[in-house]
Amino acid sequence: MCSNYRPVTRSDRMLTFFGIERAKDEAPVDVWPLGLAPFIRLAEDGSGNKVVDDGIFGLLPHFAELAAGRKTYNAKSETVAKLPSFRESWSKGWRCIIPVESFYEPNWETGKAVRWLIQQPGEVPMGLAGIYRKWRHPDGREQLTFAMLTINADGHPVMQRFHKPGDEKRMVVILDPKDYGEWLSCPVKEAPKFFKQWTGPLEAFAAPLPPRAPKASSVRTVRVLPPEDPGLF
After folding, report:
1. Contact in structure between 34 and 70 (CB atoms under 8 Å)
2. What is the C-alpha to C-alpha distance for residues 145 and 99, in angstroms, rounded to an integer?
3. What's the confidence (pLDDT) of residue 41?
4. Do 77 and 170 touch, CB atoms closer than 8 A?
5. Which residue in 65, 89, 99, 193 is a FRET match for 184, CA 20 to 30 A apart?
6. Is residue 229's pLDDT more than 90?
């Protein structure tokens, strides 16, 4: 499961690789759950145009507190239509593309977790399949939130190397650029056809340890439903 990645934030790269102009032009910085990052979705006016917005990495249903996003940044393809945290986004077709320069996973081949970076050759950005929704912050602001979709990674030449021994091997859903439009617009019943392992080349190598992620205690929250409930995620 991916909990840390480097988003595409430069406006020139967003335009070149995703065909969308981003008003902001920022140097990319690694993002963790509860961090803000851009994602691509269909405009709400029904035009079919794509727009890019910033959202919280960690999808938040209306009943959740902000800290719950530490558990809802990945949505399993096998259960996304069933779990309370994700099923409304899925059933209403609130799908998105998450533009990523690279992402990180723990490699345990040395007997302990080592942070590795995964990217495409030539540092070509990737578009990851995601879902999104709106959430109201305790201070009254409406905030967009999103999660990455994941699938089983057994047998994948690169992604099966990650995660703790004994844990299921999982990987994000990397979309073919030619499928970006259809992923966003196809009927819900057709969307699972995109849940497949990436067959293109990937580079993976050890990366420096990241800075400490922000603590949940530093976030203002309103407790509505316990995020520890295993039935939610």
Report:
1. yes
2. 15
3. 98
4. no
5. 65
6. no
> Which ranges in the chain belong to alpha helices (H)?
11-18, 87-91, 180-185
Q: Which 3 state secondary structure label does DSSP give 166?
A: coil
Cα–Cα distances (Å) from 100 to 10, 129, 137, in that order, read 11, 11, 26
Quick check: pTM over 0.85? yes
**For the chain, which domains are there?**
5-218 (3.90.1680.10)
Mean pLDDT of 172-194: 98
Q: What per-residue confidence (pLDDT) applies to 223?
A: 27
Angle made by CA atoms 27, 30, 36, in degrees to the nearest 5: 85
Residue 199, phi-psi category: left (phi > 0), alpha (psi -120 to 50), beta (remainder): alpha
| Model pLDDT, residue 225 | 28
97 by DSSP, 3-state: which? strand
**CA dihedral over 184, 186, 188, 193, signed as positive or negative:** negative
Note the pLDDT of residue 230: 35
